[in-house]
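Researcher: For the record, we're logging two predictions in this thread. I'll number them. Prediction 1 follows.
Model: Prediction 1, sequence and structure:
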Amino acid sequence: MPIPSSTSTPFPTIPSFIVSTILAFVPTVMAGGSTAPSSIPQVDFGKMGTVGLGGSFSGLDWYSSDSPFASSSSSSSSSTQSFSSKGDTLFYRTEDGIFRALGSTNDGGIINSLCWSSSPDSSNGNGTLFIGGTFTSLSGVSANNVGSFSLSTNTFSALSSGLSGNVNTLYCDDDNSEIWFGGSFNAPTGQGGNVALWSTSSSAWTKPSFGGLNGVVQSITPSSDKKSLYFGGDFTTTYLSTSSLNSTSRTNITSQPNAPINTTTVGQSGYLTPLTISASASDSAQYQIQAGPSSSLNQDGQNYGDTNGLLCPGTSTWLAQENTISNVNLVGDEYLPATGVRMVNGHENGRSTTYFCFTSLPDYQELNMTYTDPKTGKNETCTDHCPLSTDSSIAAQDFIFTQGTHNLTGFEIQLKQWTGDGAALSSVSLLTDGAYSSATGAGASSTCSSGKNSTVQSVGDWSTKTAATDSATESYLSSSVSTRDPTDAQVTFYPYVGSAGQYDIYVFIPGCKNIGDCDGRTSVDIEVFPLQGGLGWTSTISEQVDYDTQTLVYSGPVDATTDAFTPTLSLALAANPAAPARGNNYVVVADRIQLVLTGITDSTGSTVSTTSSSSNGTTTAGSSITNTTSNSTYNVAYGVFEYPRSTNSSLNAATSSLSNDTETALTRLGFGLDAALNASGSAASSWVVNTIVAANNTVFVGGDFSASNNYTNVISIDTSSGQASALASQGLSGIVNTAAVVGGYVFFGGDFTSTASSGGVALNYIARYDPSSKAWAALGGGVDGYVTDLLASTASTNELIVMGNFSHIVSSNGTSTGTGGYAVYDVSTSEWINTGIVFGNVSAGAVPSSSSGVSSESFFAGKVYGTAGNSVGGVATLSTDDNGDAVISSLNGVNFGTSGSEPVSSSPPSSRRRSSIVVRASHSYTRSWLARYTDAIVERAHTVLSSRATPPTIPSQTSQAPAVLAGAFWTNSSASGKPTITILGGNFTSSSSDVQGLAFYNEKDGGLTGPSTPLEGVVKTLNVIGNNVYIGGEALNVQNVGSGLKVYDLKAGDWVTGGMASLNPPTGSNNVTVNTIRTRGNTNTVVVAGNFGTAGSLGCAAVCLWDSKDAQWSTPGSGLSGGEVRAVDFAGDASDTLIAAGSFALSSGDVAYVASYSFTNSSWTPLGTLPGPALAIAVDDKNSSNIFAAGYSTSDGSSYLQQWNGATWTAQSESLAPGSLVSQLAFVPMKSEHEPQGSIESDRMLMVSGDLYLDNSGNVTSALYDGSTFYPYLVGTSSSGDLGSGSSLFWSESDFSFKVRHYLARGLVVLVAIAIATGLILLLVLIVLLLTFCFRRRERKDQNIYNDQKKTDSDVDSTHQNVFNNVQAALEASLIGGGLAGAGAAAATNKHNRVSDPSSYNSGAYPIGSDAEEYPQDEDEELEEDGRETTMRYDFDGPDLQEGELPMKAGQRVIIVDDEQSTEWWFVRDPLTGREGVVPATYGSN
């Protein structure tokens, strides 16, 4: 009678069509990546679960005839170009994202810039690329630093004789049929240099109308309206500033005279600022005003003898004693810089002064002065009798010192003649060249109570000190600041400026020798804010001066003082102060500042230089001041030049001073940059403008320049108002190389990591600036290296193309993706776009216009060694999309650098040369792959296998980092969501260097982590058992844990120590290599294979068995006597046969390359004869008569792929050409059936991975083999641009079906889903209820049948059959019987494995890999699964045994697996051999 398969209640089975319907409504996540083209066979990776391919590659693509490693016979173009390893390569990106090389420079050549031209005059439909750099040839065509490439004919051309020097930038101006070149070279025609112009209409050089520029040009860009060209670089241009040229001002300021109305002035003296001594000064005894003899007249309460009124214009009138010559004296002990004197005559009671003279103190020199005669309007001079008009309508009269500015400590004015009863005088004011302010607040720094006063504010601990000079004293402030903890020490000057104009600003520094503080002197930061709403100009100057010095810190426009604004200058301890000569304190001094008027601007915008001072500049009579400068008659602009196309000027900008009528807003910015450059000291040597870009009316300028605490490396100017502005956070922290405008934002790239000011936005080499909100923003996490060029894509208005010396883009969450020096950013989504990877640095790019025939393509140049469509960094995922197509994807956030985890060799490794396609030579094999091994293989060849022979040594293979050589999966059931962890092993180090050799990838958050203590060495194999991962490889070592085979507890997150005897090197070697670790089916037996000698003291060469439950090693049968096993696989439904591949010797002494081991009878059997060591093995569907092996011949080194049919080996297709190296063989399911070929079924193919060369196809990383033909499948590319090798295909489903699935078209699926959606829920409920009811009824019926069977059960044969059906997979193990090799079957004898003593190795807290003892709470479940033990009381053996019955001897132990399905028969397992079957229940002990 049939026996029910189970006494438990079965869960109702839902029909498959219902499951399919449900899944049609489940949202699917589309895998990003590259879909396999229809031209190659389609693998159904979806059946295999999660699939990964590891290898030594950084990029992975599907094979195509355009592959850079394809043979010339398969390439679509016989003239396909390759990327150069010695020069720069010009290449392009196609619409489908594939990179193609166009040509390269000579060795060492560099391409700096590209531009695309539609070439309307050359009838070139696709346009022309123009190329600039430093090179002598382009793809063999002689070209000096410039050239062109026709996109219609695919040919390079020279541009005449080229240019003499480096070309940095290009601009293609199709509207004017011109190509502009900038750099460092002599003009190809005419005079000038650094700028060249090529006419596309005449195909000849032509002369720019402005000649050229006097320094290196780095950037050429158009204005927003394309009416001007902007040039940037390291050069200067000069502009005349004389009135005859009607020069324009530097900014939109307008000078207004500050002299009272109806003042008789001299030249521009009306714009000078009066410097009047305040009445309070006399109280401090710094200055004293004396006049006399005075009149005693006191009328209507007015004291006409009060001298203080002389210091405050408009307050009172002083009258001299009647009919007496009187003097007005100002006496002090500090020098005052004066240009002249403004006299206000007195008109009181008929009295006025008619003549006077002016004598300076302390030199008692009667000064010659220039004045304007109010009657004639002519300039006159006077000395001892200077006339003063008595016309009361004249408010004041100016007298200018003819010899220029005079430094004096006082003066004496003698009133010699008068009208009426005596002399009268209202006030007297000294005039300065501009403005004056003293740090101590003393001296001539205010104008009484008018509020028009120069003021000073200080921060920090300052003290007033006095220094003696010739005939005078000098007051100044001094502060001593600790070098260990420097505090703020700052003085801010607020000078009163009477008129807006052009000024030079000087800072006075008292000499340290006279004061005696030279040891502590340091440097200070000077910051000037000259314009309302304008920029500050900062410089650092040294105060380590021996003698009194005045230093020019600013030259340019200054606004007048108003109620809303006062120009300021601050002096503070430098941010990086110069070290003091001695001591631990900085000494900072603050004396005074002076503004010298150099030009005035009228209402028409004309600037006129002042003539108040003599041509020799400032006079230093009576003073030891040095380092003075003269007034200039021209303005200098630095780093920027605007060329308006409408200009008629023919002056050479490189050699001539340009007319002021060509000045623009950008020019004025150049004036400001020049002033800041002059004040920057030693930093000036690195200044340069690298980029200029226009966004509407605003021009942004970037480069290497700064004004501390104001702007750094980037600045903008409004071309309509001429207003320059610093960007938010004072700019960027490092050099700006490039800029571009996309989507209303301005993007900057360069060598910076944040904004300039502290606490600003963190930026990594690229930044976005919003002109409307004036705010910075990061582009995700930026990139990991500096950016050299930015382009706005013409294919999409939202894409920004980024180029430079970087290798990865970084997302907002910190994960990085390898891209090489090329990336694309979507401005609309604020996300990086997957664009593949280039191996190298990209220096330049160009995009065609959107209307061109090549608008979907973009062009680039740089030091690039190769490219790939998919950036995978050593490991790729292979999946199947909804249409059944295979897809390559990367593991998000998994990025490994080019450094490996292998130990550093004492001798330097040989560099890996850039390999070309392996070409079959006339001899029978090529040696390209043997270079990776040694030349000794053939010398060690054994053409005839002999007894006790030594197996050939398989040379060690080095995998270029990054290389993922093994992979596995583990589900963390204790974590939230039970995430699947992908475990990677190989020769790699993460980009952050914190993960090496072994890595864990969490698919939930995309994070990459490593073990608690890093692993050193190269991991070659991984195997997960429970919560432990077994790790094998070469030279593995964990600090404080040990070396060799390692085990890591994934749940505990730590290395397992103890519990396993170590594997030891074979005799004559110091190394242990574990090549593979495989678990035998559903058993506790783990096969460890490689190159080793013993496990502890147990002899266990090349292959050893580990019991993961009992934690002990055992030798498989008699074991192997030596050699190396490279790969293993299993045959038989119960995996009761092990297939080992490599080069090893059996215990009999015979050398074998492939052998089988029977777990049933513990015996080894060599499988036929192969040409040489086998490196890879694959058993087709566990069929021991269909085995494929790949390796190399010991006679000539050629590669082979052969198939074992159970009796002999047969060589497969010859397409696997010499030079191939096979690392792995694996059968993969296909999307659709193919015509079966050879011994391979129609629903699968053999995937061959490694470093392969296929006839008529070229180099590939993986190929598919259908039993007759090789199909090139995958092409990997290493980080150096060479062919990448495949190492390991790994998957999560341990047992999958090869049966072909059929996919419905997505559109049809959607239509069906919509049609049944409304009734689906109700239908499912009804079906489930119905099925549940039916199964319940059948269960009750089956139970009744079972009860009847218990009463009448006597049919033994029927019982055998039902038990056999229930455990068919286990019973089939008894049917194999060593039938793999006919000749070797006789060797099958019952041999017991040698086992290690568990007690001697199980020193840990639990046996390694045993979940039962690791987790005591599961012990009962484990024992229940293992069954109970009994002993046979009688022999159960003989020829009458039926299939499924297990022969046993009396006294032999057995494990009862199932004693519930029959009262007369037990299903048992032999613990010694693992065989299972049924025995009579009465034969066993209870």
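Researcher: Logged. Prediction 2.
Model: Prediction 2, sequence and structure:
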Amino acid sequence: MNAPARTPGPGPDATPEHPRPGAPPAAAPSADAPRAEAAPVVVEAPSTAELVASAVATWRTTLVEAAGGSTLADVDLLGDVALDLSAAHPSGIAQLFAGRQTRLSNLVREGSSLSTAKRRARVVGARADEYAQRYGIAPTYLAIGVATWVERTAPDVSTDDVAALAAVMRGRPAVATPTDTPAPADTPASASAPRVVRAPVLLRPVALHARGSGESDYELTLEPSIEVNPVLARALRGRGALLDPLAVARGAFTSSGFDPRPALDRLKALGSAVLEDFSLTERLLVGTFVHPGQVLVEDLDQSSATLERHEVVAALAGDGRALAALARPLPEPIRGDRDPAEERGVGDLDPVQRHVLDVLATGSHLFIDAPAGCDVTGTLAAVVADAAARGRSVLYVPGHRRAATSLTARLTELGLDDLLLDVAPDAGWRTAVTRRLLGAMSLQPQPVDTDAVARLRRDLVAQRGRLSGYVTALHERREPWGASAYDALQALARLTSTRPGPQTTVRLGSDVVRVLDARRREQLAERLAAAAALGAFATRPSETPWFGADLTTNEAADDAVARIDRLVGGGLASLAARAEEVAGSTGLTTAQTLAAWGEQLDMLAGIRTALDVFQPLVFERTAADLVAATATKEWRARHDMPMGLLHRRRLTKQAKDMVRPGRPVADLHAALVEVQRQRDIWQAHCPGGGWPRLPHGLSAIEGQYRQVREDLEQLEQVLTTTPGGGNLLRTPFAELQDRLRRLLADRAVLSVLPERTATIRSLRSAGLDPLLTDLANRRVPPELVGAELELAWWSTVFEELLRADPALAGYDGAALSALAAEVRRLDLAHVASLSAPVRTAVVEQVGATLRVRHAQAESLFGELVEERLTSLRDTVERYPELVRRLRPVLTAAPMLVPQLLPPTRTVDLVVLDAVQHLPIELALAALVRGRQVVVVGDARCASGTTVRELAAVLPEVALRADATRRDPYLTAFLAEHGYAGVLEAVPLPEAAPLVRLDVVDGSGMPDGETGAVESTRAEVEHVVELAIEHALTRPEESLAVITSSPVHANRVREAIMTEVRDNPALASFFDPGRAEPFVVADLAGVAGLRREAIIFSLGYGRTPHGRVLHRFGPVSGPGGEALLLDALGATRHRLVLVSCFAAADLDPDRLRGPGARLLADLLEFAAARGRDEAGPAVTAPDVGAATAPDRLVVDLAERLWRAGLVVEIDYGVAGGRRIPLAVGHPDLPGELVVAVLTDDAAYVAEPSVRVRDRQVAQRLERLGWTVVQVWSAAAFLDPQAEADSIQRAVLGRVADRRARGAVPLAPALHGDVPSGPTELSELGDAQGSRGSDSSGGEGDVTAPGAGSEEDAVDGLRVPARRSVVPRARPAAGPGTAAPEPDAGRAAGHEQPTLPVPGRPRPPVERGLPISAYGDDQLDELAEWIMSDGVARQPAELTAALRFELGITRRGARVDAAIDGAVRRALT
């Protein structure tokens, strides 16, 4: 494979760009020389070995340069960081050499010398602490004797690190000249010039601990080990001296005690024999004699041959094949909760943490992104426990000691401290390791009740399934309705909470609701509104005779009016008169209805037809016998009318004789039947009897009748649906005439009747007939008919859903709460049960290994019992399987790893934690030993290269940031400076700002080297005051001071300790033995630091002329932004920023680095937050994008508000986590105490029952909230009971505060509200069913004299109410006067004139939730405030507006609404 030519680099085949130090300069090309064009060169792509070798060379050079000069070769490099005990009191030295704890005051007894010794001891201790925290190693030794000699040879720095370190320190190049190549003639003489070595002789580890108040004394304890300075030993052996360093060191311990004299004499004799100008001075020096980098260089050399086979190291070197191998896809996270029997790890983990365990189980290397606030310790405890349970060895490498301490504490809390072999960075670590290994050999397994564990897991799965099933059923969208039961509850709550609101009890048909989707309902609602506007539901039947008439078009209406007009205009009256006339002429009864008149006319027509056939004689008598005589035999038999033949013949002849001549009859029988029928009708209408008589003009009479009948029949179809009915033909003429006149008189209603009727008909066709009837019965106005339809639809759907899934109907609030509580109990018990199987598995592995390797176990046991362990690395190499099983988790700092483990890849899992500040070179020793590598850190605040470079090559899983008690606005600030989408601001119960800026007047002269005004006296004194104040007022909160520079940190530490020494009352708070002791750290040492309160003192002041020099030390340099972010993440609760200047004093054009720009933003934010403002860096919420509040929550909030509590809906910071409902108490101003959670959309979006039903609440409880879970079904069915439950929680918090004396004893709520939970029904509005109008009633708290005026609350209509929450009054509100400080002023003294608004205060009630005020109301109130003519700044107008509204709390909605009103008022 060919690749383009590479540019020269640091690799072994690279050509240096600059001449080698000491090499002759290259000859300059001649101007006359012809220029030859360089031909392109194609070279092979670098191999993995070449890339790794090049990277190793770079790493090695960096380690050598980082170590600086070696104090092992020159004790003078210690400077002030050394405690000289050469002149110590002999009795004190004897006590120290005897191995007893010895006070410094017993060693140095002269007053001034003791003061100097204490100061030196503090410096040595600070350096040791710095090494311990930063590197995990504290190389503090007592140096016994100092040897001096002259070195004249130039050592090979490629193999002699001490020489290389000394060369770097002295600022001259260290040249490695091959022995077979003569040095150039012009090589500087300094390359081989003699140098004086001043090396300590014997090194004995010593523990240095502060004792007394304010570090008033120190205690020294020597460890039972000693070694010969390797620099001296190498020099002696390099010149032929026969020296066994171990034998010489052991010779210092005799049967009579420790005596270094023989060892010193032996080394002095050897040195005098082989070293030039050798001398040995008997001195005793305490200092840090080994830099960690020296050990790592040697380890890198030992392991370099195998590094190319390590894929992580190769990837760091840039090898593409290694990068591709590391980039394999990770398994997908498991959604929801898994089977408890399949859970890995220990502790209370969230799904992301369990996903980390799943990924590691595949053997993949991993980078765990862990921003500030994550449960890193819990994650790593689970990781190491899971690995140990599976028989894997773990090397846990913390970047600072704080991380190791946290992991140890967590494993101890879980009962798994037996897994750990913690090599602490102190002089006695060997003894501690010996005891830990010895204790592991006698571990006994603890019994585990497997049946109980299995039963617990079964119960957990069952109960969790029930709860999850209910939630799923509640929120599952069901077809064909396209809605869930939760949607129905929300909709019903929204509908029934409005005032006035829909009240229908109608249920639609199942087939109807299935087809009424949202769009269809919207269309029908528009039709309903149109019908209502046309009077469909407001018009009563008695109001118009046209009510209900079936007229759908204007044409039909016009036709009906025309017909009525004809009838009323004479048609009907004329017909009635003709009927009366005919009755008079024929003897018939006068027809009273058109139907009767028609019957008479039909009779007359029939008689006329009969007389055309028969003579009138036929009507003289009944024709019944004639009908029978002319009938058939069968007819007579059927009608039971027997008749003889002769009789029939006679009657038949009579019938024929009655037929008119010349009119043949085809069917005599049928004709006689018709005659008989007409005769019966005549007799019915003519009581006088006689032959029928026909009126004159019968045909005209019939024509008039047909015309009137046609009109009435048409009108009858129209009027059938009216209250009067449609039986017009049988209505008496007088009544009919009157009705028609009334219809004609009310013809005006026909202008809207057709449209109304058509609309109603379409609604009925849609299946809404029952609803239409209900709306008409209740005369619902147009603005509510749409809501009525929605209520009917949602009510029907909800009942359908309950029928479809009966499980939904089986839970009420109490049952759900009990089920959730049971799930939480079982889950916690399950989490607690995870540790025992892990410990049992580890103990069983230990036992099995001890049995298999019995001989080795006996040998190791003997060494441990006799305390012959001098090197853990040697022990691991001789007993590898035993040591890794005894304590499977080895904890060691990066610099201790080479001393503990051989340089081979034998560790199953290497975990690098909290190494953001470390360069990659320091982590290599741990990396190369691991078969699997896990790195935990935050690349955003990484000032070193380890996390950044490893994060770039390893697959990544990001942890969830847990809720912290830091100011939520500070979390929002961090989110806008690199942590967007990672950190989420969680609201706290307290509203007071927890971040502030203190600007002090500090100035001084610039430093000659740095050019900065560093560590002014005023700033140091102010920090001391803050620290002392914190210790006296908040001793329960841990505290740390962070500074930008080590110089300022040292001055602050010394000043505070001076105060502590002078004030014994402060000793307990500043005791270093506290769980989280007080510390002072610079930015470089802040990694892993976490405290409740942080004082961040910038440490840079102004010049005497007041100028800011814009030189901020590490903040202005590379990685300054990361250092600042790490410092801000150190606070758990409070942050005080101390500076000699504010953001306004900085010139943006001179802030060139990201760290300096972040500092300016931080200063501006802290100043604004101290003024109780969000700060310009925090984005304001998008009010327009805010979602509508949960109506069930709004209803609860109203009930709690009426009970006199303080409520906030959707409480939180812009862009952060929201709490659906936060509740406080008037007796706890500025604080909300109860967080109400619901099964809303955010709840359902979390698939894990463990997270949503337990961990979310626990996180809020850790922040100080009391959490109450309200289920939507319970809040809908019995909202008052849920409100009572919330109020009991609030009153419980208040009672607890009163018991602790934090709240003065006072009536709970205005003195008229019972404080006991049994009388909560008297606190709010009266109990009633949902949907009833809850306005008014005894439960309402209304202002005296308040009328019926209503205010809008997010679409709700609620009665105007006054606040029951006492508010703090500002000093200068508009139209209000602050109380005079002196009521007894002399008469006649001129009083100040207060501004008075120029018009009455608008009727905007005080104390309501912010959502109760519309923009118009806020604008009116702001204009009224401004009407006093006083010029106000935005902040002043905001304060005045808040006062008038009675709002003291901060929140996204509150800030957005008030800020908007202020902007509108000032523009």
